[in-house]
Every structure is written in structure tokens, then in C-alpha cells.
From TrEMBL:
Pathway in which this enzyme or protein is active: Cell wall biogenesis; peptidoglycan biosynthesis
Domain of life of the organism encoding this protein: Bacteria
GO aspect biological process, one term: cell division
Gene Ontology molecular functions: ATP binding; magnesium ion binding; UDP-N-acetylmuramoylalanyl-D-glutamate-2,6-diaminopimelate ligase activity
Name the UniProt record assigns to this protein: UDP-N-acetylmuramoyl-L-alanyl-D-glutamate--2,6-diaminopimelate ligase
Entry binding sites for meso-2,6-diaminopimelate: 387, 411-414, 459, 463
Amino acid sequence: MGERSKKLNQLALTAREGKNPDITGLAIDSREVKEGYLFAALPGTRVHGGEFIQYALRMGAAAILTDAQGAEIAASELAASDAALVIAEDPRQALAYTAALWFGAQPETIVAVTGTNGKTSVSTFVRQIWTELGHPAINLGTTGVEGAWTAPLAHTTPDPITLHRCLAEAAEAGITHAAMEASSHGLEQRRLDGVRLTAAAFTNFTQDHLDYHKTFDAYFAAKAGLFRRVLPPDGTAVINLDDPKGNEMRAIAAARGQHILTVGRAGGDLCLLNQRFDATGQDLRFTLWGKTFQARLNLIGGFQAENVLLACGLAITSGDDPARVFETLPHLTTVRGRMQLAATRSNGAAVYVDYAHTPDAVATALRALRPHVMGRLIAIVGAGGDRDATKRPLMGQAAAENADVVYVTDDNPRSEDPAQIRAAVMEGAPEAYEVGDRAEAILRGIDALQPGDALLIAGKGHETGQIVGDQILPFDDVEQASIAVAALDGRVA
Ligand SMILES: CC(=O)N[C@H]1[C@@H](OP(=O)(O)OP(=O)(O)OC[C@H]2O[C@@H](n3ccc(=O)[nH]c3=O)[C@H](O)[C@@H]2O)O[C@H](CO)[C@@H](O)[C@@H]1O[C@H](C)C(=O)N[C@@H](C)C(=O)N[C@H](CCC(=O)O)C(=O)O
Ligand SMILES: Nc1ncnc2c1ncn2[C@@H]1O[C@H](COP(=O)(O)OP(=O)(O)OP(=O)(O)O)[C@@H](O)[C@H]1O
Ligand SMILES: N[C@H](CCC[C@H](N)C(=O)O)C(=O)O
Ligand SMILES: [Mg+2]
């Protein structure tokens, strides 16, 4: 029996007596099962994975991990099979710990970031800081695996098999430091269980994902799971105190015996005293435990200072000298698709691409640009299909309140009627121009730019495709902005 199979057995997943499978791999999807695999048949939102046990057994599964319902669904097939059956009360949790044991290795230092907005930004900045300080590092999340090696990921927080495979590959490749995003779906579905976290950060809490979590309380509880359950008692919680939910999250972390490092403008261990903006970024003055520091940040957006200080908090709590951490700040670079200067018109007007896809993010991104704009601020906004529908009018409203001109366009309609999504966004922005075709909206927004104006193209950030029905059509806001500027100004942007 292989070493990994022994570990699985040690886990004593109540394996069926007398059956001793020689496990060769793990799968969460029956279509990926190969001879000797353990298939995790999980309860889903559309269907119970138990429906696929029969297929998995046919493909050679040697063990099935499921719950009582899954076992009942496939009772007759399981009775006729030699495969070990593991019935767990929470099979997602059991799978996550099984994957952690199976893949084994993890980077020594792993930190996670949760919050409605800013996860990708903070985890990317932590990785950039670590890299500057000479640590082999990656970040993993919405933009995939980035840093010392890169790979695409389907989810912000991957399923536990993908996640633990990725962490093991990273550790085996010599990566010592990893910063990851903890999405609320990922926390709720226990995708992070078994990850040996040393610290975690909380950015902020505003509306998103109510389609999945149903209520704000349930959404918050999912995020709090990072500090209540996943981060161990001797870890460090880095908390943004400026968010109205910051104190509640701090109390949750403290009750679990975690060390606390607070970040904020109004106070905190790491306290932002002053920001002075200019055309290419900002100069910061801040204190750490009462001692004052200054640093240059070549990043647009007041909120990026909060993200950067949270990242500093994570780096410091992971053992790096604070003064050295702060010395890296002038070297931090724009996170792909976050307040990214995509093009400049020949009249000097700037075009930014940003991933704002929540009401708070749309407001924050537009407010962040205001100090940099002499003329009008123009916004292009849309909302994704098959996602929280209640945020759509609020996103429109956030655009209408914070921009001078608004274009409402399509984001990723997915299975929904794009016209209906646009209508919902327009409820909050009745004066907006409605231009369904995203490329045309970008062209029109850029055409409207006068000297001193700026345009924010919100919603898709780094994405390189537009999801329409079952298809992913190539689409890249940065590229479209360049094409539009070239067409209008007769030159390459
Ligand atoms: C709502 C949600 O998170 N769904 C995830 C969930 O799917 P589900 O529960 O609906 O699964 P299902 O379709 O009912 O199927 C049940 C089970 O049967 C299995 N199955 C299904 C078909 C088959 O032929 N064989 C088979 O074994 C499935 O793998 C699944 O385990 O479990 C699947 C397997 O792990 C995920 O792929 C799927 O992510 C879907 C695609 C998704 O879009 N998730 C998004 C919303 C998401 O997770 N986003 C977060 C947040 C991003 C943010 O912060 O903004 C992220 O971390 O990316
Ligand atoms: N600290 C912040 N406060 C408010 N808004 C922010 C903050 N940081 C980023 N944003 C806004 O949110 C957008 C998404 O940022 P980012 O990708 O870092 O968030 P995320 O939490 O990873 O999002 P996702 O849930 O899609 O993974 C940015 O493009 C910006 O508009
Ligand atoms: N991680 C986010 C991404 C949203 C991006 C936006 N372009 C959209 O499609 O809604 C989500 O799955 O809700
Ligand atoms: Mg993200």
C-alpha cells in the first residue's frame, strides 16, 4: 500500500471494515475519476454528487467519500461494489482534510485574505513585498497563481483538491511564502480547511453574493469562518478597523486566541496619518506602534493605501522587519485590472480599467479617481448575470452618484437576458446612456473624453473573456481601450 493510502487510512475515515483501497488519486468530479481514485460525492446546489457514484465506480473508483444522502442515492451500486465507503457528516470538510493529508507539503508561510473587496489586491501586494525581500513567493486567487510560477485557476478559492495540489507543487518547487484569497463561497464550502495558515487579513464587508448566501448575516458568518475556524489560535489576524465590521471581526479573532494587528486611518497598530496624491500615485505617512514612517506609493487610488498597509501587516506578522517591508513600497506595481491605466488619448485624457463589480467598489473606484481628474469623470458600468441581482441598481446608483456621465453596458451576461440586467442597473442610473455592446460602449466613452477628463471602465478588470450563455468570447477591456484610442486618434495607444 502506498504511503498516501496509509495516510488516508490513518485518517480512519470510518472506512468500511475489511476493505482496504489502494487509493491512486482524488476527484471531486466523477468525470475526472481514474482507476483507484477516491471520489468525493458532495451535495451540490444543482444536484447531489451521489448521482454520479455509479459512474465513478464504473471508472474504477476505489473509495467513495460522501454523506448519508449520497450513500442512500447509490445504495445498490455501493452494495454491489468492493469500493470503500466513507460516510462523513460534512463530506466537504472531510475532503479538504483528506486532500491536505494526501498532498502533504505546503509552503511554510501561508496567509489568507478575506473581505468583499480588495482580496486580490492585498494578496498580490503581499507577494510583491515578499519577492522584493527575497522570499520565493506566490499569490493565488482570482487572477490565478502569480509570482515565482504562474497558472490559471477556475475559482478565486479553488476546490480543496486543486488548492492542496497547488500548494504542494509550490512547496516542492521551493516556494516558501504563499498569499491566498479566501472567498466567502470557499469558506462556506470548506475549500480552505486543512491549509496551514499563519495569518489572515480582513479588508471590508459590503454587499455581494446575496444570491448564494441569501442574507448579510450569513455572508458575514461565512467570512468570519476564516477567523473562527480556519486560522489557528496562535495565528495573527490583521484587521481593517476602518470598516464598520472591523471591530466585530477583531472580537471573533481575539475570542479564538489569535494575535491581533489592526490597521486604520482613525487608529490602529498600523495607522495611516496622511496621503498626498499626485498624477502617478501618492506619498504616505503612517505609524507602526507609534513610530512614524513615510513611503512613496506609485499606485492610483486612495483605497490602495489601505490594501497596501494590510499587506504590510501580513508581511510583518510573518516575520519580516517592518522598516525593510516599508522600503519595498515604492516598488509595488499595479495589480492587473485594478485601477490600471489602460490608455491615454492624444488630448491627455486617461482611460482606467478596474474590477469594481460591487456597489461599494464602483463608488470607491470613482471617488479614488476624482482627485486626479480636472474635467469630467465618465464611467462605464454593467453587472454580471447569474450573480447577486439585488446589487445591480445599487451599482448603477453608485456610478450615477460618483461620475458625471455614465454608460450602462453588458458585463458577463452568462445565462441571463443582458437587456434585463442592463435595465436593473439603469434603475439606479436613469440618466445613463444604455449601450449593450461593450466594445461600442468603450468606443463611445473614449470618444466623449475631452482634455482633463478621465474614463473608468468598471467590472471586468483582468478578465480576457465575456461569458455569454455557455460561451466565453474573447474580450479584454484594456485591449478594447487601446483599439478605441487608436481608431479615434489614429495612433497606437
Ligand atoms: C455556487 C458554487 O460555488 N458552486 C460550486 C459547487 O457547485 P455545485 O454545488 O453547484 O455543484 P453541482 O453542480 O450541484 O454538482 C454537485 C457535485 O456533483 C459533482 N458532479 C457534477 C456533474 C458530474 O457529471 N459529475 C460530478 O461529479 C460536482 O463536481 C459537485 O461536486 O461545487 C463545484 C465543484 O467544486 C464548483 O465548481 C462550483 O462552482 C461554480 C462553478 C461557481 O461558479 N462558483 C462561484 C460562484 C464561486 O465559487 N465563486 C467564488 C467567489 C468569487 C468572489 O469572491 O467573488 C470563488 O471562490 O471563485
Ligand atoms: N480596500 C478596498 N475598498 C473598497 N474597494 C476596493 C478595495 N480594494 C479594491 N477595491 C475595489 O474592488 C475591486 C476588486 O478588487 P480586488 O480584485 O482586489 O477584490 P477581490 O476582493 O479580490 O474581488 P473578488 O471577490 O472578485 O475576488 C477593485 O477593482 C476596486 O474597484
Ligand atoms: N468573483 C466575482 C467576479 C465578478 C466579475 C464580474 N465581471 C461578473 O462577471 O459579475 C463573482 O464571481 O461574482
Ligand atoms: Mg479576487
